[in-house]
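Can't paste images in this forum, so I'm doing it all in text. The chain is below; anyone willing to post the predicted structure tokens underneath?
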Amino acid sequence: MERTTCCVVGGGPAGMMLGLLLARAGVQVTVLEKHGDFLRDFRGDTVHPSTLRLLDELGLGDRFAALNQSCLDEVAFPVAGSDTMLVVADFRRLPGRYRHIAMVPQWDLLNLLAEAAAAEPSFTLRMNTEVTGVVRDATGRVDGVEYRTTDGTTGTLQAELTVACDGRWSVLRSAGDLPVTEFPMPMDAWWFRLPRKPGERASALSPQMQNGRFGVVIPREGFLQIAYLARKGIDGQLRARGVEAFRRDIAELIPWAADRVDSIASMDDVKYLDVRLNRLRQWHRDGLLCIGDAAHAMSPIGGVGINLAVQDAVATATLLAGPLRASEQEGRHVRPDELAAVRRRRLLPTILVQRLQRLLHRAIVVPVLSGTRAGAPRPVVALMRRFPPATAIPAYLIGIGFRPEHAPAFARRASVPAD
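Text version of the structure:
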């Protein structure tokens, strides 16, 4: 039986950020990740201005800037009955140094955080280690986790605090029997790639809407990343129709890319995402805390899920580094009211983002999928045409958000140049 002060379950953006911050506070922290590496495709790759600023504060801005990436300056919708595009979010109007969204393979961001955390003596990252349940003490308090490695070894890691960063299908959320509120979801998403031709516009994220179909084109280095949205629960029907029918759908939705849909070799190239929108009514049990997608699954609309999870991690480290150090030095437990403070700090931005996403579902996604709309709502089109500075408002909501967090003083470092 092993022991650590804080066990972080899940090596995604929230888990790796929390591990780095707590380690810089001198807390003994162990991150458990069930995979052997971070190389998983079609995960969220958007790094927003609020997160770019945070990386600067951590001294990682220069190293991040050296990663292979593309930059999105704006979100532009097609105008119904026209070949023109309407800019609805212009990130170049944002305050501060960062006025774009960086598109970076998530594994590169996670490797960067892991390398920075590895420099801290109190940090441990254990790959190929899948958490299977929680351990409780005689009072019922969560006292760590049970795990299984890929070679079949099982064990127990005791911890003063266990933090669930293991996503929307969180094992720990289920083990903690935490109540959840589910919101209706009208669509699922399917991700795939198409080749990108030299000279094609590379600075705008472009939703495409036509004949009851909805897609989002994201320019990346060397390819186009496509999110195809359709009615919830039809993945089996899409796959039963076959790849030829799917290619025809995409060619009709994105006519200017019709000459390259043959690059979709089979439906195995189309990755399905079961979209959920929910949040826990309580984020903690004694000894256990949920953050990120484990506390609130987000819609892919706006691509804000990763950045919201990172903000959760920063708030968690800021609020709990002191109590965790006290547990090491004085032998006291982190109190439930101290865990509840994380939810109190992060609940309002979570609610506001989810309400905004539900509004966009009703105002745009549902009408498009039902065939009653083929572009942005007319009032939005009129506003953005008559008053272009209004494009700063959606850009701020997407890029910075309702309550951006800053790195705590104990985690800040001078910038380290890239190798």
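The chain has a mean pLDDT of 93. Residues 336-369 form the longest helix (34 residues).
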